[in-house]
Specification:
This protein is of the alpha/beta class and 519 residues long. It has 20 helices and 18 strands. Helix 9 (255-267) runs parallel beside helix 18 (446-460), helix 18 (446-460) packs across helix 19 (465-487) and helix 19 (465-487) packs across helix 20 (496-512).
C-alpha cells in the first residue's frame, strides 16, 4: 500500500474523477460511509454523536457520516463552524442532504454560547483534512481547543484537525483522537506520527490503483500485500518443497540465540532447519527442541566457531544444497569467527540472512558486503546499522529512511532496519514500513526470532525475496502484539513470539479478506 503526500492525495482524487470517471460526490459519499461504519462497529454504546464540521471537503465527509449514523438509529448533532452560505461544491450538496438541522457557529461568541452542542457520547472531528497546512487559528482553533477539553472519545475524519499530514513531528494546536479513519492511502503523518491513541483505519473509497502514486517510493505493509505467501498448501506437500535453512551461530553463553533462530525457521513454515554451532555449545542447542537438526563445528578457545570450520571444508559440506544461510545469532565477535563470517558471505551464493555479530564482522569493511546477483538480507538494529554505515547511532535515528535506502542501493541488498516502524529497503529505492510490534519486544532474543523468520520465509519463497522479507517482518511484529495481549509488555520474552505466530498468521489471512487496512 502506497504512502502518499497531501499533494499526491489531492492529485489522486482529481485523477479518480477526471481520468477514471469516479464522481467526486461518490468519493465523498464513500468516505463518509466508511467513517459511519467504523463508528457504528467500534462504538456501539455511543448513542449521542456530535459531528463537528468545517466548511471544506472534510466537513462534507462529516455531513455524510452524520446522515449515515442517523439512518443507523443514532442521535446525531451536526455543528458547522461556518455559515452554510459559505459551503461550496460537494460539501454544499452533502449539507443539503442532512436529515437534521445543523447548528451554525460563525463567531467565537456563537461557540461560547453553543458549548452544550459538543456534549455527546462521541465526537466526530470533520473540521480540517490532510490538505490543511498548520497552524490552525481563529474559530477552528477555538473549536479544537473545546474538543480537547471534552471527555468523550474522538474519531477523526482523514486526520486530526490541525495536523500536518506530511510531517512526523507536529507543532501548534492539534485535535486529540482516539481513532482515525482515512481514505485510499495513508499520509506520512498517519504512519510515522503519533496522531492517535487508537487505530488508524485506511478505507478504499473508489480511487483506482492506477491513480495512486508515491513519489517518495514509500509503502505501508498491509495484509493484502503478503497474503499470497500464506495461502493453503497443496495436499501432496512434503518438507523438501519448503526449503532447508542452515543457521550458523551460537557460542559459549549465547547458545539460545542460534536455537531460537532455528526454531523460528521451522515455526515460519520452512521444511528443515539445521543449526551449525561450536561443538561445546551443541548439546544445549540440540536440547532446545527435538525438531532442530544440529552440526558441531570446530571452536576457538572462547567457545565460538573457529576459522577451521571454513578452511577444513566442513562448512562447504553443510552449506551445499541449503536454500538459505542465516548467519550471526549468538556467533560472537572473536577475530577468527568474524573472519569466517566474511569468507562465508563472500563464497556462498545461496540466499543469506545476516544479523547480530554476523553484521559486526563487517564493521569498517562494509565494502565487502554486496548482494549483486544473489539475495542478501541484513537485519541491523540502529547501533549495528551505524557501525556498517560508518556513522553514529544518533545519525541513524535522525535519518532512518535515507540511511536504509542508501545502504540497500549501494550494496545491492535488502536492509531491514529494526526499531519503531521497522523499515525494509531494497536496492531499487522502494521502502516498506512495518507498523506491527510493541515496546514489550524490546527484550533479548526477539532479533534472533526475526532472523529465523526471515530465513524461513525466504526458504519457502526463493523467487520472491522482497515479499518474503516483508511478510516475516510484519508477522514478527504481529506475533509480538498477539503475545503482548496475554503476557503484557513487561513480561514478554522472545519465545512468546513463537507462541503468538500461528494466531498472527490467522489474523493476517482474515485481514486480507477485507478491504479495510487497520494500523
Amino acid at each position: 500500500m502506497k504512502i502518499v503526500t497531501a499533494a499526491e492525495m489531492r492529485e489522486i482524487d482529481r485523477l479518480s474523477s477526471e481520468r477514471y470517471g469516479v464522481p467526486s460526490l461518490t468519493l465523498m459519499e464513500n468516505a463518509g460511509t466508511a467513517v459511519a461504519e467504523f463508528v457504528a462497529e467500534e462504538y456501539p454504546q455511543a448513542k449521542r454523536i456530535a459531528v463537528i464540521c468545517g466548511k471544506g471537503n472534510n466537513g462534507g465527509d462529516g455531513f455524510v457520516a452524520a446522515r449515515k449514523l442517523r439512518e443507523a438509529g443514532r442521535e446525531v448533532k451536526v455543528v458547522l463552524l461556518a455559515s452554510s452560505a459559505e459551503l461550496r461544491g460537494d460539501a454544499a450538496t452533502m449539507f443539503s442532504r442532512l436529515p437534521v438541522k445543523a447548528v451554525e457557529i460563525k463567531t467565537p461568541a456563537d461557540l461560547q454560547n453553543a458549548q452544550q452542542e459538543f456534549e455527546a457520547d462521541l465526537l466526530v472531528d470533520a473540521i480540517l483534512g490532510t490538505g490543511f497546512r498548520p497552524p490552525v487559528s481563529g474559530l477552528y482553533a477555538d473549536a479544537i481547543a473545546l474538543m480537547n477539553t471534552n471527555s468523550a472519545p474522538v474519531v477523526a475524519v482523514d486526520i486530526p484537525s490541525g495536523a500536518d499530514a506530511d510531517s512526523k513531528e507536529q507543532s501548534g494546536l492539534v485535535a486529540r483522537a482516539h481513532a482515525i479513519v482515512t481514505f485510499t492511502a495513508p499520509r506520512p503523518a498517519h504512519v510515522f506520527g503519533q496522531l492517535t491513541s487508537g487505530p488508524t483505519i485506511i478505507a478504499p473509497i473508489g480511487s483506482p490503483n492506477e491513480a495512486i502514486v508515491s513519489s517518495r517510493q514509500l509503502n505501508l505493509i498491509a495484509a493484502a500485500d503478503i497474503s499470497s505467501l500464506l495461502a493453503p498448501r497443496p495436499r501432496d506437500s512434503n518438507k523438501g518443497m519448503y526449503g532447508h535453512v542452515l543457521v550458523l551461530g551460537g557460542s559459549s553463553g549465547k547458545s539460545g540465540a542460534a536455537a531460537m533462530a532455528g526454531m523460528s525457521v521451522l515455526r515460519s513454515g520452512a521444511g528443515l532447519a539445521t543449526v551449525a554451532t561450536a561443538k561445546s555449545v551443541l548439546p544445549t542447542v540440540a536440547s532446545f527442541h527435538p525438531e532442530l537438526m544440529t552440526e558441531a563445528l570446530a571452536e576457538t578457545e572462547t567457545g565460538s566457531i573457529a576459522l577451521e570450520a571454513f578452511t577444513s571444508g566442513k562448512l562447504d559440506e553443510l552449506a551445499d544444497k541449503k536454500t538459505v544461510l542465516a548467519i550471526g545469532p549468538g556467533i560472537s565477535r572473536h577475530l577468527q569467527t568474524s573472519e569466517l563470517v566474511r569468507k562465508a558471505v563472500a563464497k556462498y551464493k545461496t540466499s543469506i540472512v545476516l544479523d547480530a555479530d554476523g553484521l559486526n564482522a563487517f564493521e569498517g569493511r562494509s565494502a565487502e558486503l554486496n548482494g549483486k546477483g544473489r539475495t542478501i538480507v541484513i537485519t541491523p538494529h540502529p547501533g549495528e546499522m551505524a557501525r556498517l554505515a560508518g556513522c553514529s547511532t544518533a545519525d541513524v535515528q535522525k535519518d532512518r529512511l535515507n540511511i536504509a535506502r542508501n545502504f540497500a542501493r549501494e550494496h545491492d541488498l535488502i536492509v531491514v532496519l529494526k526499531g519503531d516502524r521497522t523499515l525494509i529497503a531494497e536496492p531499487g529505492d522502494e521502502v516498506w514500513v512495518n507498523t506491527t510490534g510493541n515496546p514489550g519486544m524490546a527484550t533479548g532474543g526477539t532479533g534472533d526470532i526475526l532472523t529465523g523468520m526471515v530465513a524461513g520465509f525466504l526458504a519457502q519463497n526463493p523467487s520472491r525475496p522482497l515479499q518474503a522479507v516483508i511478510t516475516a517482518v510484519h508477522l514478527h511484529g504481529l506475533a509480538g502484539d498477539v503475545a503482548c495481549e496475554s503476557m503484557g509488555e513487561q513480561s514478554l520474552i522472545a519465545t512468546d513470539l513463537l507462541i503468538g505466530l500461528p494466531e498472527a498468521i490467522r489474523r493476517t489471512q482474515r485481514a486480507a479478506a477485507t478491504t479495510i487496512t487497520r494500523v
